[in-house]
Amino acid sequence: TISVVLIGSVLWLVLRALGIPLEYFYCLFFGVIISPTDSIGLLGVLRSVRVAKSMETLISGESVCNNAITVLLFALLAGIFADPDVHDNVLSLPMFQLILGGVVWGVLLGLLLHYLLKGIEQQAQLAILLTLSLALAGEAVALWLGLSVPISLVIAGLFLANNSAMTDAIREQLKFFWSLLNEIVLVGLLVMLGLELLLLPVRVEYLLAALAIIPVLLFVRYVGVGLPILVLQRYRRINPGMAR
């Protein structure tokens, strides 16, 4: 949340300084889209630099929590964008149904997945098919009920990640399958974004804005992580250099 607000505010100021008119609401949308961290890619980076296992666990946990909150913020902003009347839209029954219903459905999916995987010992292919089937079926039911699909599947994924009943072999196979699927989807998304950029007019102001926002993003991420750590270090021991 800190990252979204700071990125949106600074981006709005930078664009105004460059003479690019953009509503503040769209700047917040950019903050929501750019704030999540790729937990799978992040794990690869952390292992390559050989950080401590405790640090790796904390950063990975922050990434998953960050992504879940970002999905929630995106749903809120998308709902507000669909209805200019902010107060009526945020406090309306459909919005609560979208978010809270998605959380409840995600918990039910996670419990069902935990129960089904509990009796599987060495059948990794069956475990992969179960997770894939429940993801597709969970999405279909969520759309039918008018619930948030991303929130539902994020909650179910958290249950899967913390499933202690799975063997190490099945866990590695699931991690490999979903990591590969994530990379395929990510490549497709980046290709579509690149094709979309071909339709945009090339202006010097856009290039300057892009170059200016890169260090801003890094600084805002540092502040967004550093402020909670500054508060938490009063109550628990924090490793030096964790924010960096």
List the helices and strands and how they pair.
Blueprint: H1 2-17, H2 24-34, H3 39-49, H4 53-82, H5 86-90, H6 93-118, H7 124-145, H8 149-161, H9 168-197, H10 204-232
Short description:
The protein is an all-alpha fold and 244 residues long. It has helices spanning 2-17, 24-34, 39-49, 53-82, 86-90, 93-118, 124-145, 149-161, 168-197, 204-232.
Task: Write up what this structure looks like.
The chain is mostly helical and 244 residues long. The protein is 79% helix and 0% strand. The chain contains 10 helices and no strands. Helix 2 packs antiparallel against helix 4 (53-82) and helix 3 (39-49) runs antiparallel to helix 4 (53-82). The longest helix has 30 residues, at 53-82. The chain starts with a helix and ends in a 12-residue tail after the last helix.
Number of helices: 10
Q: What's the gyration radius in Å?
A: 20 Å
Distance between the termini: 19 Å
Q: What is the overall shape?
A: globular
Strand content: under 5%
Helix percent band: over 70%
Largest sheet: none
- By helix and strand content, what is the structural category? mainly alpha
Report the order of strands and helices. HHHHHHHHHH
Notable characteristics:
244 residues; mainly alpha; 10 helices; 79% helix; globular
